[in-house]
Design brief:
With 303 residues, this protein is an alpha/beta fold. It is built from 10 helices and 14 strands. The chain has one domain: Rossmann fold (3-Layer(aba) Sandwich).
Length: 303
Amino acid sequence: MTKISNVLVLGCTGLVGHGVSLYLVKKNFYVVGTANDKNIKSTNKNFKVYRNINLLNEKLINKIESIIKKNKIQAVIHSAALVPNKLNYQSKNFFNDSVKINSLSFLNLYKISKKNNVNFLINISTPNVKNVDKIDLEIHHNFYIFTKYLAELFLSKLINSKTNIVSLRIKSPYGYILDTKAVIPNFIKKIIGNQKLILKGNINKKQTFTFVEDIGSACEEIFKNNLTGVKNCFGTEQITIRNLANLIENVFSKKIKSKEFKNFRYASKFSYKKNINILKTSLNEGLLKILKTNKNFEIFKIK
């Protein structure tokens, strides 16, 4: 079995892409990242970044192929995605753009990977994938799920591929990138900015969150064990939104010593039998890592 050392991460400046890239760099992989950003700069010798890679531009597919060839890429992790929000969901092009980035780009990446003998192609997905009814497409979250469902339809037809195709379903990721609408980054950003947290919905319902570096460890596990097909990567704790808000407020609103931090007990353990083996970072550990990280995220900075 070929040892994987050179990995391409599409969408490396996003919440998931950054966490995966950071983990792999720490584990001595040579990581190449792409970003739809003009002002990104690499700060680590084991991390190379290509700027202005917009997956809506079909001509850039050839650029990605040249990146794969030049850097002798053995595994591709597709974490680039168009995630809906109130602004882009109202755009006339949102439907077509989402399908292109979240679904069709996966098929294009497969063709490139197969042509260039890439060992692994991992598509970051969601555990809620399903064939969403057309009426439900008006709900932007369901539309994101639908585009990921389309990508997995492609996957199901590529079982006999020499390239290991994996759909890695992740649940509620959180990490160092705070410029996102995801629950934990959004709470952290508001606490740091001295804004009041407004809790909505069923705040006593338990949820599971996954630290982004654990997603990187799941990718490493896929490489080591030559895995293929649909895999799950979930955190191993459950917490209510009410307790999550209390935990984040306690951590980020004042300085806490490590010993004090470990005494917080807000989350409860749970086991998901079909979960891929991951680092299993606790919420306490993950939030402490975010609290201590430097502003340049260790592998890149944005001007």
